[in-house]
Amino acid sequence: MTTYNQNVIKHKVGLLNLPEELGNVSKACKLMGYSRDTFYRYQAAKEEGGVEALLDKSRRKPNLKNRVEREVEEAVVEFATAYPAHGQTRTSNELRKKGIFVSPSGVRSIWLRHDLHNFKLRLAALEKLSAEKGVVLQRHKFKLSSARRMTTLPTVKSKLLIQDISAAKTHFM
Question: Which of 70, 74, 111, 69 is closest to 89 using CA atoms?
């Protein structure tokens, strides 16, 4: 992204410097493929804010209609740091029991905004919070179930056992 911005600024500054060399704004604009109106807009922007003002600005207005209330967002973030092993659906269901209504996809969107979208990031946020407040972590809040652990994180022992079974067709306990 920065190289794109550097290239955009380079072309715009090149356009602004070319009339000095050629002595004519019209020729410079024709040579670079810009209109004179664009040249004068770039020149005014450079005079007002310097070279940084030449960056492409997003014209898109933020759509705040799709955002949840601040209280709901704070509750989701607090729950995510308190129970990092819970997924978006379980978080939504647990918050619904407390009277906070947010969909699982809404939970996911909030997690993405706050950089909590996976277990490791939520666990890191919990560790950071506990270090700041001096809170002792409770094991049941971030313990993965054994079935999930076996399917997602196979241990070296289980990999060796699978290899051993497939090679020798025997099972050692």
Answer: 111
Residues 6+ apart with CB under 8 A from 92: 102, 103, 104, 106, 107
Res. 157: pLDDT tops 70: no
Number of Cα atoms under 13 Å in the Cβ half of residue 22:
15
**Residue 73 and residue 28 in contact, taking contact as beta carbons nearer than 8 Å:** no
pLDDT tens digits along 70-112: 999 999 999 998 899 999 999 999 999 999 999 999 999 999 9
Out of 48-62, 103-117, 134-148, 159-173, least confident range: 159-173
Q: What is the pTM of this model?
A: 0.48
- Give dist(CA 77, CA 116) in Å, integer: 8
Are the C-beta atoms of residues 123 and 142 closer than 8 Å to each other?
A: yes
Pseudo-torsion of CA 103, 104, 110, 111, nearest 10°? 170
Cβ atoms 54, 9 nearer than 8 A: yes
Structure tokens at 23: 């002595």
Residue type, 29: C
CA–CA gap between residue 68 and residue 106 (Å, rounded) = 8
Query: Which residues are within 8 A (CB) of 123 and not within 5 positions of it... i.e. 6 or more apart?
Result: 84, 142
